[in-house]
Amino acid sequence: MNDMQTTENKASGHPSDEIDLLDILIVLARQKKWIAGCTIGIGGAALVASLLMTPIYTSTAKIMPPQQQSSGLAAMMGQLGALAGAAGGIAGLKNPNDLYVGMLQSQTVADNLIQRFKLKERFETATQVDTRNQLATKSSIAASKDGLIRVSVDDKDPKFAAELANAYVDELVKLTQTLAVTDAARQRLFYEKQLQATKNTLAQAEVALKQTQEKTGLLQPDGQVQAIIANVAQLRATIAAKEVQLAAMRSFATEQNPDYIRTQQEIQGLKAQLVKLEQGQPEAGDFIVPTGKVPQTGLEYVRKLRDVKYYETMFELLAKQYELAKINEAKDSSMIQLLDKATPSDKKSKPERALITLVGIFMGFFVGVLGAFVRESYWKSRKNGFFTASTTSD
Description:
The chain is α+β, with helices and mostly antiparallel strands. The protein has 3 domains: about 30-55 and about 350-380, no CATH class; about 55-180 and about 335-340, 2-Layer Sandwich (Bacterial polysaccharide co-polymerase-like), CATH 3.30.1890; about 195-315. It contains 15 helices and 4 strands. The chain has helices spanning about 1-10, 20-30, 30-50, 70-80, 80-90, 95-105, 105-115, 120-125, 130-140, 160-180, 185-215, 220-250, 260-280, 295-330, 355-394; strands at about 55-65, 140-145, 150-155, 335-340. A 4-stranded antiparallel beta sheet has the order 2-3-1-4. The longest helix has about 40 residues, at about 355-394.
């Protein structure tokens, strides 16, 4: 039954539902002019389009980032002991190149380049965000396996592409000078902050010592106490002598005698000074300290003086370590090393005309083949319709 239907279908001219390779080749051979025309036409259009495209030039700068560790830094850490341990905890990235790539791709660097080269006017963008995006499409920043970082810039002007690539390196150098990136830089920043804090504390301790000196009147406790004791002894001796003199005057002078009155007043004045030295309160700017308060004021003075000496020692220690950290930062090559400076390219990198033309040819061939089957199907449908119409009219 099936063989009879197949025979009838072939006899009646109806195509089989199965796809035959020979039929495909027959269709392609029959539509070869159409396929060739599409291939040549679209391929030629792709070639013309590639010729009309603006040539793009690429300039690349290669930089070598600094290493994270240094032997000098480790030696300095050993000298500091526990204090260095506090700063040592801030060490190390696993891959420093990733950090520098991120810095090059940062918004800070992009904004500096936009302002430096007036990229908003050059790219004809309306907003800062659009300008950053346009800059990102023209720039390629990546770390390679050889440990170098490559900064490539595409532009129709080869000179501008080289300048922009080198400007990336300049901005990275400026950024690393303001940020603590390496271990040595972090150590330097740590000691710089500690040194500033100790300097402020030392200044406060010096002011407190000065206030204690003004309050107590002590300048040099050892020598000053001896002078106070000597003054007390001298005053007591003078008072005793004046009292003997006054007792002697009573034997020949009355109480209204001018000499007697003057001597009595002198004795009163000397006794007032003696009371002041022994138990009185010193006034501001008065260097006479009461002998009864010498131990208390001496202890207060010694405490303030000890604070000043302590912070002076700390300041000297931190100052030395800060200078060592600065030296180690310089040894650690924290400055970016430019291996290859970007130069204007004399050969375009885009568009790749051969590749564009080749893609156009393949697309033309594909469109031609697809169109060939569409044309063949349309031709058969018209032919079958015409055949059916003729049979019906007969």
